[in-house]
Design a protein that fits this description.
Length: 98
Amino acid sequence: MYHWVDSQHFTAQVEARGHRLSLDGDETLDGIAYKVVKVTLSDGFESYLYINQANSMVERRRDVRALHPDADPTEKLIENRYFDFTAYCGVLHPASSR
């Protein structure tokens, strides 16, 4: 049995820390339909989570930021992709990413 995150409980925990979540629409990437959730941290940093609409797993995360702001302040799109979800203590986690 896998445990699903209670979205209301998760949202309350995030907001209690001063962060915000907002639905940022739908996007199709590589033929996969995603719901996009914008995460705004209390310091203003923004990140985007891509939730696969077919299986409800967060399969991508995108940020726009400078890799080394002191050496080169140029902002770039950075994407992490998550694969091979396996169960650990009843919760699915990605076993690999790139």
